[in-house]
Amino acid sequence: MTRPLPPLAIKAPRVNYHPKVLESFTGDTDQHGMNILLDQGVYRHVRFQKESGSSMYWFDLITTPGLLTINGDMGTYTFSREHDMFPWFNSGYVNEGYWSQKLRASDHRPNHSIREFDDDTFRRFVIEDFWERRVDESPVFAAAVWRAIKDELIGVYVLPDDQREAIEKLDQFDCGGWTYSEPWEHDFTKPDYTYLWNLHAILWGIQRYYAAKEEQP
User: Fold this and answer.
1) DSSP code per residue over 49-114
2) Which residue range is the domain that position 129 belongs to?
3) Same domain for 159 and 120
4) pLDDT by residue (tens digit) across 45-71?
5) What local confidence, expressed as pLDDT, does residue 22 receive?
6) Residue 72 phi/psi, 5° resolution?
7) Same domain, 183 and 203
8) CA-CA distance, 215 to 217, in Å (whole number)?
9) Could you tell me if 101 and 79 lie in one domain?
């Protein structure tokens, strides 16, 4: 039977990680209950879904020795680090960079990745790079380069769609000798929204699991 989940007081981390994702996740799961389907040492199967029975945003946390899998409406990811993965993930905040190093598998939906291209990051790099380098050029040449940058790199209709295209555009850009050296050294991606949602689900679910265990007589 699904157990309703009262609000859980969680100590706020020193840094507010992924506030937009966390806000969305909180709204997506505010009617979720918890159902412990299996609880035998490190063998666990805990389900979280809306008490109404809706399948929207449901997810399972499944652990076996050395592995934790989250599976549900928002995808599937498997991590490996410690014999018991629940205490390892119960860190108080989502450590996306470190946790990603322990990812062993994810679902194979088309074009699915744990990172996605961020055109804001690309645009910011191009603008800041121009702003720093322009001081060494004549005003006339700098103005010509800026026009070319807007026409070929950061204009609304020419922004790249992914990391590969961004690197290609930088590599091919040449305005009177103004080029970009080793553009492949730059990363214009950010953590994928769905992946971050699942990381917050892991932490949130584990905290609910431990809170329920503490309430048991």
Assistant:
1) EETT---TT-EEEEEETTEEEEEETTEEEEE-SSSSHHHHH-SSS--HHHHHTTEEEE---TT--S
2) 116-190
3) yes
4) 999 999 888 899 999 999 999 999 999
5) 92
6) 175, -155
7) no
8) 6
9) yes
